[in-house]
């Protein structure tokens, strides 16, 4: 990369940009792009800042009333070899021809070419993207009101091949008690959980699951069933960033909110993965400044947990590296303040992780300095920088020369270690750029590595209805295997970073052929290994019981194509169910499902509740408000309403799942009525 001299922006432009940021209190999130299979080490590399893609995006769509940033791209995600790009753009372009493809488009991750077969129907800005664990759905969040189907305001699950809305996922996001539509700014998939962040009040999921959870909640990424027991309830702003740790210990949230579960946690919260409660004893103010509480100036826009540390970027032009265990700050970087003679600084708004390297993006076009430990360190920056993810050292081998205004809002490292930048960048490496810039290692993708991985070994497949579980011994590579591609009957159905994969959509009563091959960081593919798995109907008909964490369980079984199913537990009368799952608010021990009609009548299976026993089906909680009143809350189990009473007094009819009691009692009783849960009762004491 060429040496550059500092640029001094026009003073009027600096003043205008300062005004825009002060006036803008809600912006779309750019969360860590941890799903990229790229794998780098924090040693010397040689990257080109000449764009390696000819296709990009153009023409800003209408401005939102909630923010004023003019980036064309705000989100990037990848499924297989397809790169999905979301934002405010109206067209895709190769610099000569423009094709109408507003707000969301697909590109080939290797060639960068536009993929015209992906045709979503979205009517406004896209801020967040994520892939389902099996790669069969693309989750989309934003400020749109329609994504091609009913109940797709702010959130939609799409078919990743066509872009059509996948209504079978069944998640609807709502913002009740407000005249404004819900907005989704952050999505993160870890394990089978899809974390959803933004500005909303309720998540309405599959099988009637529903929860009131302000601004942040989670659902099963495979079934769409809402976790009704996970309710962080952030208030006073918007969630922009979510990052759940792979080890399942905690969930990080960032944004403009003030409280988490009623406790002060301004702009940054560390939440328990099991309960959603704020983890006590952590000082979360390290990324903020001394602006008054509630001023709206404090925000966190991007978060990435890597190993034992966590990176946090946002307001006051800062990027902070801290220890996860205690949030002890290890390193702090800051771009220039507005009006600096060395160029214009800006807030950090995107992070991408690739092995031991993180790339961080900001709307900064001047110099970056380190605070505290190395205050004399300064380097010229153009929106995106690289750091050693563990030590926090700035890595000078990536120093692009770019031009733009609002800078990088989305970063993604693909399997070939090429860095994709979504932004308003119009110039890079001396060439024109089109809002979507791809920087690659010199010498070809992956730095010239041409040696392919070996084949995998000991591939096995087990039919455990309603899924096929695959496992294998890892392949080897001269540099390192980064991912595995899984195909079923010749069609790619997903990828895995480990030596295992579960296919939850396998066809029944047939023989299925699976192919698995390894890929390295340079994009080299290893040989394919195949296995046939028999998915026999009679022997494969089985059910599973999953605890929802709110006193209810969900029973699911593979689809035999029956007209319906009789479901019963513990010898009770059977319920007639047309779907292939049922949420039971009065759980039993042993379940029996019998299929009827369509040639499979009488086929029966059974399963056991691993938790055992039954119970009242839901629980209530009494919380003192500090003013002589209490708030009684309970999970929303889908009833038409509830009888609410305390200490034997006459019951009140309540249509919500909470009640503010101004004359508190000692023992509360809540009884659900209607919608299949009549008579379900719980009690709680103050």
Structure description:
This protein has 686 residues and is mostly beta strands. It is 2% helix and 42% strand. The strands form 17 sheets. It has a six-stranded antiparallel β-sheet, with no helix packed on it. A hairpin with a 2-residue loop joins β37 and β38. The chain starts with 10 loop residues before the first helix and ends with a strand.
Structure at a glance:
The protein is mainly β and 686 residues long.
Strand content: 35-45%
Shape: globular
Distance between the termini: 66 Å
Q: Which secondary-structure class do the elements indicate?
A: mainly beta
- Helix fraction by DSSP (H/I, runs of at least 4): under 10%
- The rounded Rg comes to 26 Å
- How many DSSP-defined strands? 57
Q: If strands are numbered along the chain, what order do they take across the biggest sheet?
A: 22-23-24-25-28-29
Work out the helix count.
Answer: 2
Low-confidence stretches: 1-35, 287-296, 612-616
Strand count, sense and closure of the main sheet?
6 strands, antiparallel
Mean model confidence by pLDDT:
82
Q: Mind sketching the topology for me?
A:
Elements: H1 11-23, E1 56-60, E2 73-79, E3 82-87, E4 89-93, E5 98-100, E6 104-108, E7 126-131, E8 138-142, E9 155-158, E10 172-174, E11 183-190, E12 193-199, E13 202-204, E14 210-212, E15 216-220, E16 234-235, E17 239-244, E18 250-255, E19 259-260, E20 263-264, E21 268-272, E22 300-306, E23 309-314, E24 318-323, E25 329-335, E26 348-354, E27 357-362, E28 367-371, E29 378-380, E30 384-388, E31 402-403, E32 410-413, E33 419-422, E34 427-428, E35 431-432, E36 436-439, E37 457-464, E38 467-473, E39 481-488, E40 491-496, E41 500-503, E42 510-520, E43 529-535, H2 537-540, E44 543-547, E45 553-557, E46 564-569, E47 575-577, E48 581-584, E49 590-596, E50 604-608, E51 621-624, E52 630-633, E53 641-646, E54 652-654, E55 658-661, E56 667-673, E57 681-685
Antiparallel strand pairs: 1-4, 2-3, 3-6, 4-5, 7-8, 8-9, 10-13, 11-12, 12-15, 13-14, 16-19, 17-18, 18-21, 19-20, 22-23, 23-24, 24-25, 25-28, 26-27, 27-30, 28-29, 31-34, 32-33, 33-36, 34-35, 37-38, 38-41, 39-40, 39-42, 42-43, 44-45, 45-48, 46-47, 46-49, 49-50, 51-52, 52-55, 53-54, 53-56, 56-57
């Amino acid at each position: 990369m060429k040496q550059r001299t500092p640029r001094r922006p026009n003073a009027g432009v600096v003043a205008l940009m300062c005004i825009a940021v002060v006036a803008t209190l809600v912006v779309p999130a750019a969360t860590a792009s941890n799903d990229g299979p790229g794998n780098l080490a924090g040693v010397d590399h040689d990257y080109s800042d000449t764009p390696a893609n000819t296709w990009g995006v153009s023409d800003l769509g209408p401005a939102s009333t909630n923010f004023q940033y003019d980036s064309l791209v705000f989100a990037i995600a990848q499924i297989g070899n397809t790169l999905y790009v979301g934002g405010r753009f109206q067209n895709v372009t190769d610099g000569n021809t423009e094709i109408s493809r507003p707000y969301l488009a697909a590109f080939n991750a290797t060639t960068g070419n536009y993929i015209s077969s992906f045709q979503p129907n979205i009517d406004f800005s896209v801020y967040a993207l994520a892939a389902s664990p099996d790669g069969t759905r693309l989750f989309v969040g934003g400020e749109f009101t329609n994504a091609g189907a009913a109940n797709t305001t702010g959130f939609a699950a799409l078919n990743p091949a066509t872009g059509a809305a996948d209504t079978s996922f069944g998640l609807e996001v709502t913002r009740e008690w407000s005249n404004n539509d819900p907005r989704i700014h952050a999505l993160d998939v870890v394990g089978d959980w899809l974390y959803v962040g933004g500005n909303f009040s309720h998540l309405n999921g599959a099988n009637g699951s529903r929860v009131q959870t302000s601004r942040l909640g989670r659902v099963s990424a495979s079934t769409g069933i809402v976790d009704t027991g996970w309710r962080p309830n952030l208030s006073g702003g918007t969630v922009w960033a979510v990052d759940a740790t792979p080890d399942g210990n905690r969930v990080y949230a960032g944004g403009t909110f003030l409280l988490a579960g009623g406790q002060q946690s301004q702009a940054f919260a560390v939440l328990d993965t099991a309960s959603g409660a704020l983890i006590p004893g952590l000082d979360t103010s390290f990324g903020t400044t001394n602006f008054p509480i509630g001023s709206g100036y404090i925000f966190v826009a991007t978060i990435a947990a890597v190993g034992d540390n966590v990176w946090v970027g946002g307001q006051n032009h800062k990027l902070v590296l801290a220890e996860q265990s205690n949030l002890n700050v290890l390193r702090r970087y800051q771009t220039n303040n507005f009006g600096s003679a060395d160029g214009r600084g800006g807030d950090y708004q995107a992070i991408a992780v690739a092995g031991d390297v993180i790339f961080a993006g900001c709307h900064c076009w001047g110099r970056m300095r380190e605070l505290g430990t190395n205050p004399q360190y300064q380097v010229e920056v153009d929106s995106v920088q690289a750091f050693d993810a563990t030590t926090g050292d700035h890595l000078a081998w990536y120093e692009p020369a770019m031009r733009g205004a609002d800078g990088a809002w989305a970063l993604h490292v693909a399997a070939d270690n090429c860095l994709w930048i979504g932004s308003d960048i119009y110039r890079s490496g001396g060439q024109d750029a089109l809002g979507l810039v791809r920087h690659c290692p010199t010498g070809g993708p992956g730095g010239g590595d041409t040696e392919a991985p070996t084949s995998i070994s000991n591939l096995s497949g087990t039919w455990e209805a309603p899924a096929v579980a695959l496992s294998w011994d890892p392949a080897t590579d001269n540099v390192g295997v980064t991912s595995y591609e899984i195909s079923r009957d010749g069609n790619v159905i997903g990828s895995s970073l480990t030596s295992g994969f579960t296919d939850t959509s396998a066809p029944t009563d047939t023989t299925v052929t699976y192919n698995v091959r390894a890929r390295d960081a340079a994009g080299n593919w290893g040989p394919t290994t195949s296995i046939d798995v028999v998915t026999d109907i009679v022997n494969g008909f089985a059910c599973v019981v999953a605890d929802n964490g709110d006193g209810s369980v969900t029973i699911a079984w593979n689809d035999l194509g029956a007209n319906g199913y009789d479901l019963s537990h513990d010898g009770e009368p059977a319920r007639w169910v047309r779907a292939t799952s049922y949420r039971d608010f009065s759980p039993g021990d042993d379940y029996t499902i019998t299929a009827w009609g369509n040639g499979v009548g009488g086929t029966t299976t059974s399963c056991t509740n691993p938790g055992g026993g039954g119970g009242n089906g839901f629980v209530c909680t009494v919380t003192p408000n500090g003013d002589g009143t209490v708030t009684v809350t309970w999970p929303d189990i889908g009833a038409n309403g509830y009888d609410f009473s305390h200490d034997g007094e006459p019951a009140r009819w309540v249509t919500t799942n909470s009640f503010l009691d101004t004359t508190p009692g000692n023992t509360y009783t809540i009884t659900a009525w209607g919608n299949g849960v009549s008579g379900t009762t719980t009690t709680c004491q103050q």
